[in-house]
Specification:
CATH topology of the largest domain: Endonuclease III, domain 1
Strand order of the largest sheet: 1-2
Structural class: mainly alpha
CATH superfamily of the largest domain: Hypothetical protein, domain 2
Strand content: under 5%
Distance between the termini: 146 Å
Order of helices and strands: EEHHEEHHHHHHHHEHHEH
CATH architecture of the largest domain: Orthogonal Bundle
Helix content: 40-55%
Number of helices: 13
């Protein structure tokens, strides 16, 4: 407290004792016991001054009440004293809390730099900060706790910011061996479109591609009317340029010719890799090539047959998408899955070939038996 408030001049009769309205309530005190206002003290000085002034006021109050009040007023005296003690303790706790806040601030500032020290306060101890456990990698760097989305590691070019359609294509289709002619023709058309669009842009419009190109049926696409397809304002004109649209129609015609010659487009294209998947086993993305000698051989043969827009780069993208080559990084979870899928399809193909051979043998046996029966019948008739 900085001192008692100023009072007006009074008479001699009133100079003995007077009630003063101070900041803490109505308190009694003599004018002669008042001290002159002094300069503001520090925190410790103020605290000591508060303690001494409170003690003096307690003694004055007690003496005045005892001498002037009857015994029935003793309960109020005790309540006033208890109230003063609570006020004193509240001041002490306030100063202690200020000091504890300062110590807490210093603790946090040291914690941000990595140097942790323990600080105590009069009000009580704070609970120690418990950090969440984090895994430590092999090089000693702390890693954050693994999330469910990061439980399966993908190829490096598939990032958390990758569009969902492309991530789904990577997880379900890219690198899986394809043996259906319509599916192979679809992937060939989409690979040709990479000259003008990216994979995410193509996959986001995949349903439009299927509507425009008759669900990628080579026979149906080869019979499409080029004028209607290339007309301005048509759905196809918003997908690809006129050059690429003409290439798609011409490639559908050439696929139909290949089917007539080899029995299926699947047999023609897989014959270049001996009907086995080429496993690359790349460790880093920079090792994945843009084209290979095998893609160059396939590209030259397709160009010789009349295919358009099938350069080595486009052909190699088609080989990756159709599963002729497994270019998933070895750290990707799809690497082993695509290998297993290729092995299953090879086993199924081997079983189909055996079944066809058995059916052919049984047919030959039946024909021979039938011819023998006919010969016997003719011999008996003679």
């Amino acid at each position: 407290m900085s001192g008692a408030p100023r009072l007006r001049s009074m008479n001699v009769a009133d100079s003995e004792e007077r009630h003063v309205l101070g900041p803490a309530g109505n308190k009694t005190g003599s004018l002669t016991s008042r001290k002159p206002a002094s300069k503001p003290l520090g925190k410790a000085g103020k605290l000591q001054d508060d303690v001494t002034s409170a003690k003096e006021k307690k003694s004055h109050k007690l003496s005045s009440v005892v001498t002037s009040s009857p015994q029935s007023h003793s309960i109020s005296v005790h309540s006033v004293l208890r109230r003063h003690e609570q006020l004193l303790h509240s001041n002490l706790s306030l100063n202690a809390s200020c000091s504890s806040d300062a110590s807490t601030d210093s603790f946090h500032s040291r914690a941000s730099t990595g140097r942790l020290t323990r600080s105590y306060s009069m009000g009580g101890r704070k609970k120690p900060y418990v950090s969440k456990p984090r895994s430590v990698s092999s090089d000693g760097v702390l890693d954050s706790p693994p999330d469910a989305s990061q439980s399966q590691k993908r190829c490096a070019w598939v990032t958390p910011n990758t569009e969902p359609c492309y991530a789904t294509f990577h997880d379900e289709e890219w690198g899986v061996p394809v043996h259906d002619d319509k599916k192979l023709f679809e992937l060939l058309v989409l690979s040709i479109s990479l000259a003008e669009l990216t994979w995410p842009a193509i996959l986001s419009k995949r349903h439009i591609f299927r509507e425009v190109f008759a669900d990628f049926d080579p026979v149906a696409v080869s019979k499409l009317n080029e004028r209607k397809l290339l007309a301005s304002g048509s759905a196809a004109s918003f997908l690809l340029s006129e050059l690429k649209l003409r290439a798609v129609i011409e490639n559908a015609r050439q696929v139909s010719k290949v089917i007539d010659e080899f029995g299926s487009f699947d047999k023609y294209i897989w014959n270049f890799v001996n009907h086995k998947v080429m496993v690359s086993r790349f460790r880093y993305p920079r090792l994945v090539p843009v084209k290979t000698p095998k893609a160059d051989v396939i590209s030259k043969d397709m160009v010789r047959r009349g295919f358009r827009g099938v350069g080595p780069t486009v052909v190699y993208s088609f080989m990756q998408a159709a599963g002729l080559t497994n270019d998933h990084l070895i750290s990707c979870f799809r690497f082993q899955e695509c290998i297993a899928a290729a092995e299953r399809k090879e086993e199924n193909g081997f079983k189909d070939n055996n079944n066809n051979a058995e059916e052919k043998e049984s047919g030959d046996v039946m024909e021979s038996d039938l011819s023998i029966a006919i010969d016997d019948l003719s011999f008996s008739s003679e």
